[in-house]
Amino acid sequence: MTDARFPERYLSDRRVLRLTADEFRGWAFATIWSVSNRTDGVILSDELLLVPFMSASTAQKLEASGLWAADGNGWVIADFPQTQTSRHELEVLDNARRREREKKARQRAAKTGAPVSFSDVPGDGPGGSSRGMSRGHVPEDNTGRTGREEEKWFVDNETGEITDPAPSVPAAWGARTCRVCGTEIPADSPVPWCPKQDDEHNNYRAQAA
To answer: Closest Cα partner for 5 from 94, 82, 98?
Structure first.
């Protein structure tokens, strides 16, 4: 599942408060649509009317207000890089979840002697569970490594594939805590923070990007 975020600062943002009800709906749905379709905030002119509550006049109002910016054959959502998860980050997380499912399948097969089979269906791991969606940026993924000793990952910038230097046994839930508030998080979480969406957590994610 992919989610979109709306920071609380929009509650006092004059650009947002001056929108009509339908303009607000169009702007909100456009953000959700872009995250869902992994367009990194880009809304093409020929796809504009695919967005619920969107129209050409609404797009012009959003551009005039500074919430959107003209970009070639369409528009780009102005605050998208600071508030939403990018396509590359989602692909990195997809690869991490896939590798985790495959590792658990191999572990089950080693215990039971059954053949190993893999599935690309999200959440098709043991017990039907899957790791949570990223709530922010994957730390330092543009360097090819997180640089954090407890997260010995290597990221292929071409494919988004994540590998670790040696097989490891999954740690128990709660073995790690959020770097911001100390709340317990899954030991195999791809990021060292919890999914809370307050200013303190969002600022930490922005600095880690």
So the answer is: 82
| Among 182, 184, 177, residue whose Cα is nearest residue 150 | 177
**What are 69's two structure tokens?**
């910016």
DSSP β-bridge partners for residue 162: 155
pLDDT beneath 70: ranges in the chain: 1-2, 114-175, 209
pTM: 0.47
Q: Which residue has the tokens 């070639």?
A: 72
The Cα-based distances of 94 to 78, 99, 148, 173, 174 in angstroms read 26, 9, 20, 20, 22
What dihedral do alpha carbons 130, 134, 138, 144 form, nearest 10°?
Answer: 30
Q: What is the pLDDT of residue 117?
A: 61
Query: Distance of alpha carbon 177 from its chain centroid, rounded?
Result: 20
Q: In which residue are the tokens 């695919």 written?
A: 50
CB atoms within 10 A of CB 99: 14
